[in-house]
Specification:
The protein is an alpha/beta fold. The chain is 35% helix and 22% strand. The structure holds flavin mononucleotide.
Length: 278
């Protein structure tokens, strides 16, 4: 079993690097071969929105070291993605890799690999959206989430004193090395992304991340959606196929057919903005 650790923190040997490495130590203890990668060190440019990866089913056209990250993901049988919490959410490096992985929703190249999302945060309760983006990366690519949790520490290294997080990371690594595909983490919340962020829509419980709805029950004190039988989540094979084949891919030919008209409408729109500084 080959397990890849990804830490999106810019702080080398900081808390996120430690938590992800602890997962890898657990995986190694169960016989896995491991690799560790820090996308912040690859100095990745942001996604430029060209969509060539999707429309041409090719690797990213941007000339930087992103392919090193793609190669590592392809190499792995299982992946742990770790992010620090920045302003209640994950950091910009995490969002950047999420954007640049968009094509895997279509190619399904990573589908079926086991995966874990971990986050570090300084203050308990100040991390509500930290796991949303690593979980989205996992689910959009069709990987199987095995666990997701947050560990706490402010200064770099303080996570070493969060025994619960360190133990859980190690155990998670063992599970990844053993090829676990089922979710072994906390119960409750959304049954797909496991985020504890159930909202109400049309009188029913609704998960905005996964687009499922149903009755809400309390499981171990956590609002939990019992999905309606006809509620297909947005990350299922069928939903992703529909999304790319019916919504995204047809937009390319349509745009090309109407390019001249759209282009002149855009020119006219900006020519009207005489007062806007150029
Ligand atoms: C710009 C910035 C914003 C932060 N925002 C939060 C926050 O909203 N909630 C929180 O709990 N911690 C926050 N933190 C603290 C980090 O999440 C925490 O120190 C974490 O352990 C950093 O991981 P690292 O050592 O891998 O970089 C923030 C840190 C920085 C640098």
């Amino acid at each position: 079993m080959k397990v890849l650790g990804v830490s999106t923190s810019p702080r080398k040997e900081g808390n996120t690097d430690i938590l992800v490495t602890q997962v890898l130590y657990g995986a190694e203890s169960a016989g896995a071969e491991t690799r560790f990668i820090r996308p912040a060190d690859l100095e990745l440019k942001p996604c430029n929105g060209c969509m060539a990866c999707v429309f041409k089913r090719r690797d990213c056209v941007i000339k930087d070291r992103f392919n090193e990250f793609l190669d590592a993901l392809r190499w792995a049988d299982a992946v742990v993605i770790g992010t620090p919490t920045y302003i209640l959410s994950s950091n910009s490096v995490m969002k950047n890799i999420l954007d640049r992985l968009v094509v895997f929703g279509l190619t399904r190249e990573l589908a079926g690999k086991s995966a874990m999302a971990v986050a570090t945060a300084g203050v308990i309760g100040w991390e509500p959206f930290a796991l949303e983006q690593p979980m989205t990366a996992i689910l959009a690519a069709g990987m199987a989430p095995v666990d997701r949790f947050v560990g706490y520490g402010q200064g770099p290294g303080e996570i070493l004193y969060d025994d619960a997080a360190m133990d859980r990371a190690y155990d998670g690594g063992v599970a990844l090395a053993k090829g676990e595909k089922n979710f072994i983490g906390d119960k409750g919340g959304c049954p797909i992304c496991r985020l504890n962020m159930v909202t109400y829509r049309g009188g029913k419980g609704y998960c905005p991340l996964c687009d499922i709805s149903g009755e809400v029950d309390s499981v171990e004190g956590v609002a939990t959606i019992i999905p309606d039988a006809d509620s297909e989540n947005r990350w299922s094979e069928a939903s992703m196929k529909y999304h790319y084949e019916e919504k995204i891919l047809p937009s390319g030919p349509w745009f090309r057919e109407n390019f001249r008209e759209i282009h002149s409408a855009v020119k006219e729109f900006f020519s009207e903005k005489k007062g806007v500084p150029q």
